[in-house]
Amino acid sequence: MPALVLLGAQWGDEGKGKATDLLGGSVDYVVRFQGGNNAGHTVVVGDQKYALHLLPSGILSPTCTPVIGNGVVVDPAVLLSELSGLNERGVDTSKLLLSGNAHLITPYHTEVDKVTERFLGKRKIGTTGRGIGPTYADKINRVGIRVQDLFDESILLQKVEAALDVKNQLLAKLYNRRAIKPEQVVEELLGYADRLSGYVCDTTLVLNDAIDEGRVVLFEGGQGTLLDVDHGTYPFVTSSNPTAGGACTGAGVGPTKINRVIGILKAYTTRVGAGPFPTELFDADGEALRTIGGEKGVTTGRDRRCGWFDAVIARYATRVNGLTDFFLTKLDVLTGWEQIPVCVAYEIDGRRVTELPYSQTDFHHAKPVYEYLPGWSEDITGAKTFAELPKNAQRYVKALEEMSGAPISAIGVGPGRDETIQINSFLD
To answer: Where's the active site on this chain (predicted)?
Structure first.
């Protein structure tokens, strides 16, 4: 049975939650391997809508074990609040597993994140202000706090003191903020220990054993390919690796154990925050996509920037992730347009380029080159098979598949769990 990676093939918000939830009943484990509560998933089950920020989408499938891997950064207050909210709605969260090696977001991480972003002014990155970046920075600088540290008060105090030695100087002398007392941070963090202890384990061991036993394991990425800290539109990126390789380091599973890599593509393109976006629309079409598609960030509440489908980005995602399949979402949002532009290349200083520019400068100056595909007006939300789609919708899907470089194996035709056309099984 396969181990699969499911990730965003654009700038995030592609509908990964729906795709993961669709598979949730068929898989044994769903694993978050990077990011934190800056990545939101919306899952619709019947008439119920669930907004998940930190928890894996598999938490909603009773037969599935949800796992938060070592590559995730965890705000304990957010995690416990999210668990409590689901419990109040009748969702069983007792099967959650949390890596003891995952790093914790502390109050000083969120404080540093917010003041730093304000200090940058016009040069701001567009961070969510939730402490994600500073936590990853501490991890790399080897002054981070891990989940396992909650269970040794002496080690926890030493680590918090070491981390605050420099941060308090920064807060007080550069940002004119009060210094943070280590004892207060430790007291707050220790308050989470008992409530989290039942979830904590060696998730790397659990997952490798599960794969060796033939269980189906789904690795769920947050954000998207173009927000990867190494392969995205740097510096307007997240602080982790939401590309396929991140699943290996963020969950402790070797690449030879992964059988399939599924990219989630929206039928158009969106992004949140600052940074280049060649197909971005500032007209009535952009507003229509935003309104019809409900394009507001699950975690941030910010309006998403909207634009037409970008095949250059899709091809890039196929290449850097080794994608085997695409799941195309929100095709229904495009119903009603007489013509639908698709970006097939960029024009940069008079040159036509068909691959993502290597240079940040070139990408900032890239102008989309469009081809126009005929639209459709029929309601497609009731379609159960590809053949039931209008001919022009079929042509649109086929064109995107050819341009993107991997087969489209499923199509989202509405927000509901059952509003999906499955062309090929992801589990074969």
So the answer is: 13 (proton acceptor), 41 (proton donor), 139
